[in-house]
Amino acid sequence: MLDHPAPKGFLSRYVFSLDHKVIGIQYIVGAIVMGLVAAYLALLIRTQLAWSGAIQQPEDYLAIVTMHGTLMVFFVVSPLLSGLGNYLIPLHIGARDMAYPLLNMLSFWIYVLASVIMLASFLMPGGAAAGGWTAYPPLSGSESFLPGSGWGQTLWILGMALFITSFTMGGLNFLTTILNMRTKGMTLFRMPLTVWGFLVATVLALLAFPPLTAAALMLLFDRHGGTSFFMVDAVINDQLIAMGDGTPLLFQHLFWFLGHPEVYVIVLPCICLLFEVLAAFTRRPAFGYRPSIYALLCVGLLSMIVWGHHMFVTGMNPWVGKYFSIATVIITAPFAVIGVNLVASVWRARLRLATPMLFALATISAIGFGGVGGLFLGTMTSDIYFHDTYFVVGHFHLMIGTVTMLSIMAAIYFWFPKMFGKMMSEKLGKLHFWLTAPSMMAVFILMHMQGLGGMVRRTYDTSVYTYNEGANSSLTTPITILAMIAVGAQAIFLWNFFYSAFKGQPSGRNPWEASTLEWEAPSPPPHGNFGDELPIVHRGPYEYSPEGVDQDVLPQAAPDPDVASTDTEIPE
Amino acid sequence: MSTTGIAAPVRAQNRRVLVAALVATVVMLFTAFAAAYLEHQGAARAANKWSPVALPGVVWINTAILAFSSVLAEVFRQSRRRGLLWGAMGLGLVFLGGQVFAWLELRRSGVYLPTNSYASFFYILTIVHAAHIALALVALATAARRPRIASLCVGFWHFLGVVWIYVLFILKGL
Ligand code: HEM
Ligand SMILES: [Cu+2]
To answer: Is the confidence at residue A60, as pLDDT, over 90?
Structure first.
């Protein structure tokens, strides 16, 4: 039951494909390309900091940091998840494709266009946008403040607008597909947690991006229409620059109303997919399936009302800050439920330490370290000290950099056999893991130490400011070396990925003996995913080592064994 | 493998979810503008600088036109007489023309986009709303040929009418 016939030519098969699997892989490859750019920028940042013989001018440094952050969040991690979601959701829920294949294809190509425009920011007179990935006005509002705030910033805004369009289109597809296209027997509470993660993330994205769109539009008007929604008069080099009497704080509210939920948009699917990997490599059900879902829903809801914890030191009313502080501490409770369930899923289990499992385990520890740092930043009193130090940089890299990257790696190693019908090399996978995970964690944990010492972020040469003296600055060079190892190790991954896609060992249908629907399909699944008949779901997603049955696993689609399991009826 | 496509009831359900989600995003967009407006109004009032400008009279005529267009669209939805749909769309175009007239009118009286923050909000809110109306007109045009999506398109058209009232409420009532 598929709208579009199987494609014939090269173009319709691999380039303008309507097939969710091809689009998923396109997203992943596109994001890998952008990831190379963004990682290169990260190394430029780190070399500048470690051997700061004034290689970069301060404006260049700020542009590099800004573009690194923007690319990583919106053009690497988000599209990686768009790719995984595209690939996995229909297979996971037993659908033949997304609800709207054409919309799906358009959203990918708009992402490509957005990427090109965003990168073109570097080519503009004055250089790329440099006002930070947060693009706070007035800094981002006028060239008189920063050369990058000229055309570079305009292209940044246009690139972001296109990205938002693409992501919203993708989100509409995810939502309709998950809600309506499930196969027979796939009730909401039999969906794999990965799909739940994508569902909550999608709803958050659809609700949180429009205010950023509003803010971007107003910023555009401020820059090119002479309005002053956000702009204020400023004094630069003893000169008064008249900009009007807007309210810069307003932009921060609108930005973080998106910015905080966006963190959850990328982190929640990453955390949820861990359950899948853990279950398969412990041969036990994921611990606390329903509690995890309820916790997920609470986290999603609460994440919309905590954004002000990014703004404690902006001069916002302290009582408002107090509210945001309390709300932030409350959100750690459901989050901790998920964390405990993750740990309980591996507690005393017999682990099969294949590469995906190694990455999954490392992700759990990154969640732990990142979570602890978050407590200090969510508490207003300590954040006043930590704000704008490397403590913040270390913290958010653990959460939205390390957690996401390690978890996505787990996912790619786990689902690669499904995508290409080939295995990735285990040897290279393990080597990649041991070079990546420890060094990445070390980089960002050490950044916390510098932050504790008061090292200030977004500073092109920390040694020119005396207040950075004693801020554990002797760690700067080791951090840079570790970062080089972490980034360099990705060469092994790239080789493994592309080589195995063509030359890997054949994987067969279900190499991990996993239970969910995608493993019922051949590897790689044909056009339309499943054969003539869609699979019918008989039970929840993680029936590993089921009781009373002489079987290692009861796949979701397997008919009931002789001994009845408790959950057998097929609801309509 | 059969290629009959996604089953009709699933399709209908997909469309409903799609439109509901679109409505939610538009609501969030205009809520953000309303919040921004309130913030500006508060700050400007505290500094004794809040100076709303009189809206051009044509705005009220436009409101009536949009309301009438919604009525025609609704009767179309129930009777499926295409002429009514063309009528509703024609009125939608007249509304857009009326909005352009309102902007020119303001310009003539010396109120430009940057004049003051009330004017800025007037322009940005009406421009964003007009952009949505323009896109919805395209959707309505497709509804003429595809009766199954007609109801949803008309529903969205009504929704944009409500958003217009909301815009007026922000500008006159807050
Ligand atoms: C090994 C990999 C990485 C290294 C070495 C690295 C390094 C850095 C450094 C040193 C900064 C701060 C520079 C400064 O404040 O002066 C920074 C900023 C940032 N990074 Fe990374 N990063 C890496 C990966 C990532 C990833 C995966 C993400 C994904 C979300 C990310 C997102 C950001 C963001 C959002 C900023 C803030 C930009 C701003 O201040 O406007 N980074 N990175
Ligand atoms: Cu936050």
So the answer is: yes
